[in-house]
């Protein structure tokens, strides 16, 4: 079981420029994946791991995020009057998932800066950071395993996933040693978006972290890196190089289903794959795809 003190932090202050013009007035985290906004999947994942306190780091024009997790009594009343209890339950689900809080990032100084903005809310406890671009299939738990490893070994834990070596330049990459657990590695170093020939492994960092509170002190003195931003990877690199700061930095290797919603093509694939797995949509969608496929040749 997860300790009640663990909270989740979801950075959601990005501009979503890859999805313009859709994200001109709508946060990218509110783009629908089938029929739920992407951020709701992330909050549901946190809840499934035993977390009931979620802090969302937002930027300007992100009020839609707060509205989504709030009650809409007029809509609820209308659906109740119509007797549409199925839709009513789905509408109310978001507002009852967890205690969801919001804080503004202010200056957009990168992921490390966004995490640092969570310091007052998190306090002196271990906490999870969950990036909204990565959706983890509910059937393949990852965060609960990361929390288990972190608490058992008093460690910082980073989620890793094997990728094709030709794609490693798109990710942060981990240099690792094996441990007694087949799905856990000790991280010696982290390299941000290396060339394939320079990469120490094909283990890519994906958007889940379980961090100890010592990360905040490290982030306070982390100099801006790539793009002039404070990089979380740079702070994790410092922790990995000096275990006296906060203990070891470990990686949990994830081999389950992950959906990347930060890229337009991958976002479309993610929506399609998740819809195919649903009882209410999958059969009809499968039939349509079979009809469509010959026309694509």
From TrEMBL:
Pfam families: NTP_transferase. The keyword Nucleotidyltransferase applies. Its EC number is 2.7.7.9. GO terms for molecular function: UTP:glucose-1-phosphate uridylyltransferase activity. The keyword Transferase applies. CDD domains: UGPase_prokaryotic (cd02541). NCBIfam families: galU. This is UTP--glucose-1-phosphate uridylyltransferase. It comes from Microbacterium pygmaeum.
